[in-house]
Design a protein that fits this description.
alpha/beta; three-stranded mixed sheet; globular; Rossmann fold; about 400 residues
Length: about 400
């Protein structure tokens, strides 16, 4: 099997992980030759007292900065354009993105817009970015997207209402700084959906048609860490061990998706965000058990592996039974962290399902990566099942 594989892995991001690591932010900026920083900051961080933890290390190093905190949960392309204009005017030489996936995606896009010119919409798609961006450093404050180590930035197109991504090697951050202490203030809902989002990244990368030994290594460790610790982090936000495990699991899941891609869950989640503003992580979490149920026959051996990684006892079970138990494992984990059980709970109108299904199938890379090749009718059926749920 290995003899027939061709594996390409790009890992340009230096990773700095540990409790208290945020104190090194100024030095990491200096190491990236940064002296004037545009700080792209999730606005929620200012309300919980985290902004000073980010700015103090910059002050200590004498680094000047401006804060750009006009970040929406599902950011539009114009936010990236707006941030790029600010970065140009101030003469920024480094972009620091702090927050969840939205803040980091905006920061990554700003970085490449400053050096490549044009508008954010010009770079939607694959490999349209020709020049390196400004130095960019990502500081995740949620355990979810893994955007600190990926080459993607996802946006809503305000003109069309569709959701799409910039994809290309210049979007890889130069450095990722992960401090579990920054996640201690996350409320349970912002622990839950991003956590299942990270699990989705790892699971879909593991069964992706593009998976290989390196991506599998990341995905397996990520699934073990997340499944064992998400409930504890949700139940007790001050559990620093669980928070640390979740942040590392999210990072590894990001590495897995960056090397093997994601699948149908993500494709089906895109219209939920683009059409109805459902946060990406929540959309993935609600859809995950339904798509897993559909996908199992596409790679039962790997789904049986996943069952073990998620803590199921499968001794004596046949392959199909073991693989099928993943659905229950995912469903139970969703239940433990209060993820809604249906699309109806998100107020998605049932009459929009055919349009959603058509849009989902245009998200070509995740659809191509999926272990089972879906038809339009099958995607409609998955949405219809998810609309009412299994309760």
């Amino acid at each position: 099997m290995l003899a027939s594989q061709k594996i390409s892995v790009i890992q340009p991001t230096s990773i700095h992980f540990g409790v208290g690591m945020i104190d090194n932010l100024g030095r990491i900026v200096r190491n990236a030759a940064g002296s004037k920083v545009l700080l792209v900051l999730d606005p929620n961080l200012q309300g919980v007292g985290l902004a000073e933890k980010i700015t103090n290390p910059l002050d200590n190093e004498g680094i000047t900065y401006e804060i750009f905190s006009h970040i929406d949960p599902e950011p539009g392309l114009k936010l990236a354009d707006e941030g790029a204009e600010i970065a140009k005017k101030m003469g920024a030489d480094c972009i620091v993105g702090v927050g969840g996936g939205s803040a980091m995606d905006v920061a990554k896009a700003i970085s490449i817009l400053v050096t490549n010119g044009g508008k954010a919409e010009d770079y939607l798609g694959l490999d349209k970015i020709k020049k390196p961006g400004l130095a960019k450093i990502m500081v995740p404050t949620t355990a979810g997207t893994g955007a600190e180590v990926t080459f993607t930035a996802v946006f809503i197109n305000e003109e069309t209402g569709s959701k799409g991504g910039m994809n290309g090697a210049p979007l890889y951050p130069d450095a990722a700084l992960l401090d579990p202490a920054l996640t201690l203030t996350l409320p349970p809902p912002v622990t839950a959906a991003p956590g299942i989002d990270a699990l989705t990244h790892a699971l879909e990368a593991y069964v992706s048609t593009q998976s290989h030994a390196v991506s599998d290594m990341y995905a397996r460790e990520a699934m073990e860490l997340i499944s064992a610790n998400l409930g504890q982090a949700f139940a007790n936000g001050d559990n620093i061990e669980a928070r640390s495990a979740m942040l590392l699991g999210s990072l590894l899941a990001g590495k897995a998706l960056a090397t093997a891609g994601v699948g149908l869950v993500h494709a089906m989640a895109y219209p939920l965000g683009g059409m109805f503003g459902i946060p990406h992580g929540l959309a993935n979490a609600v859809l995950l058990p339904y798509v897993v149920d559909y996908n199992i026959i596409g790679n039962p051996a790997k789904f049986a592996d996943i069952a073990v990684l998620l803590g199921n006892e499968i001794e004596g079970a046949g392959l199909r039974e073991a693989a099928g138990s993943v659905v229950d494992a995912v469903w139970n984990l969703n239940h433990d962290v209060n993820i809604p059980t249906s699309l109806a709970a998100l107020d998605i109108p049932v009459e929009k399902i055919p349009e959603m299904a058509e849009i989902a199938l245009t998200v070509t890379r995740p659809v191509e990566n999926n272990p089972r090749k879906p038809t339009l009718e099958e995607v409609i059926q998955i949405y219809e099942t998810a609309m009412t749920g299994w309760d």
